[in-house]
Amino acid sequence: MKNINWQDLSFGYYKTDYNVRCHYKDGKWGELEVSDSEYLPIHMSSTCLHYGQEAFEGLKAFRGKDGKVRLFRCEENAKRMQNTADYIMMKAPSSELFSEAVVKAIELNKEYIPPYESGASLYIRPLLIGVGPQMGVAPSKEFLFTVFVSPVGPYFKTGFKPVKVLMEHTDDRAAPHGTGHIKVGGNYAAGMRAGEAAHHKGYAMAIFLDAKEKKYIDECGPANFFGIKDNTYITPSATTILPSITNASIMEIAKDMGLKVERRLIPIEELATFKEAGACGTAAVISPIGSVEDSTSGQVITIGKPDQVGELTEKLYNRLRGIQYGDCEDKFGWNEILEF
Ligand code: PLP
Ligand code: COI
C-alpha cells in the first residue's frame, strides 16, 4: 500500500499510476489499453471540446475490515452512462466493457485503495468523450472511453456534520426538457457560477430551484436533496434531476428501516417543516444540511438542530457506509467483491 496520509485526504484529484482507455472507431470498440499518462491526445476539433459531447460517471470502491475490496453498484453507473450517451448521441461502452475497465483501473492502482480505518475510499471516474473532428454541429463518429481513479476523503471539509447551503434563484442548472437527468459536463458548467458564489459566501454548495416556476427544490450542484419528517423520507422528483444511485440506495434502506418514502415536488415553503435534510451522492455520501439561506430574501431556514446530525440521517448514513465497507449485511446485493 502506498505511503499516503489517508486520513488527510479530501475529495480531489490524486495522481495514481495507471488509467485505462478504449477507442471507438469504424463502428466498433477496440481493445482496452493501459496508460501511465495523465493526458489524452485528442484532435483539436473534437466534439467534446466544441459541442459538449462528453459524459462522465462517479463510483467508489471500499476496502473492508476484512481486507476485501468492494465495488458499489457498478452496473448502475454503466447503465446511466449508456442513457447519457444515447441522449447526446454518443456510443457508450457495453456494461461488460464498462465493468472490465473499472475493475482493471482499480486493480492496476490497488495500492491506492485507502485502508479501512481511514474512512477514505477509491473514487472511480469513467469518462466518455467524442473525439472525432467535426466543424458543423453533428455527432462524432469516434469516441474515447477512459477510466481513472483517485483515493478520496470527505467531499465537504466538515466531514459528517451539517452544512449550510445557499438557495440559488437566478441561475438554472438544467431546463425541464434539457440534460439535467443525464450526467454531462454542461450541467456542471451551468451550475458552476452559482456554486462558486455560494462557496465564496461560506456555504458548502448551492441548491437549485426548478427552472420553470422557481417554486420547488431541484437538487444541489453535485448531489440530490432529501428531507425527513413524520417518519418519511422525501426527495424531489423532476425531469431535471440526476437519478442518483446513492439516493436510490438510501430509499431502499429507508424502506427497509420502516420509513415511508415519497418522491414528489418539494415547495420551498416545505423546507422549514423538515426535521432533517441532506444532500446525497457518491462524492457527498450523505451530507446533512443544517440550514438553507435564501439568496434573494436573506431568510435563513434552519432544519432540525442545525449543529447536530438528525437521528434518521445518521442511521441511514451508518447503514449505507456499513454496506459499502462490508460492516453490514449486503442484503440488496449491491457490492461486487474484487479478488486480486
Ligand atoms: N446529482 C448530481 C448533479 C450529481 O453530480 C451527482 C453525482 O454523481 C448526484 C446527484 C449523485 O448521484 P450518484 O449517487 O449516482 O453519485
Ligand atoms: C459524484 O458524486 O460522483 C459526482 O459526480 C459529483 C461531483 C464530484 C461532480
Task: Walk me through the structure.
The protein has two domains: 6-152, D-amino Acid Aminotransferase, Chain A, domain 1 (2-Layer Sandwich); 163-325, D-amino Acid Aminotransferase, Chain A, domain 2. It has helices at 47-50, 74-87, 95-108, 185-200, 245-256, 311-325; strands at residues 19-25, 28-29, 33-35, 54-56, 59-63, 69-72, 121-130, 143-152, 163-167, 205-209, 217-220, 224-229, 232-236, 260-264, 276-281, 285-294, 300-302, 335-338. The two termini are 14 Å apart. The longest helix is centred in the middle third of the chain and has 16 residues, at 185-200. It has six helices and 18 strands. It is 22% helix and 29% strand. Bound molecules: pyridoxal-5'-phosphate (PLP) and 2-OXO-4-methylpentanoic acid. Pyridoxal-5'-phosphate is lined by residues 58, 219, 222-224, 242, 244-247, 281-282.
Low-confidence stretches: none
Shape: globular
Order of helices and strands: EEEHEEEHHEEEHEEEEHEEEEHE
CATH class of the largest domain: Alpha Beta
Alpha plus pi helix count: 6
The CATH topology of the largest domain corresponds to D-amino Acid Aminotransferase, Chain A, domain 2
What's the gyration radius in Å? 20 Å
Task: For the structure shown, list the relevant keywords.
9-stranded antiparallel beta sheet; D-amino Acid Aminotransferase, Chain A, domain 1; 6 helices; 2 domains; 9-stranded mixed beta sheet; alpha+beta; globular; D-amino Acid Aminotransferase, Chain A, domain 2; 340 residues; binds 2-OXO-4-methylpentanoic acid; binds pyridoxal-5'-phosphate
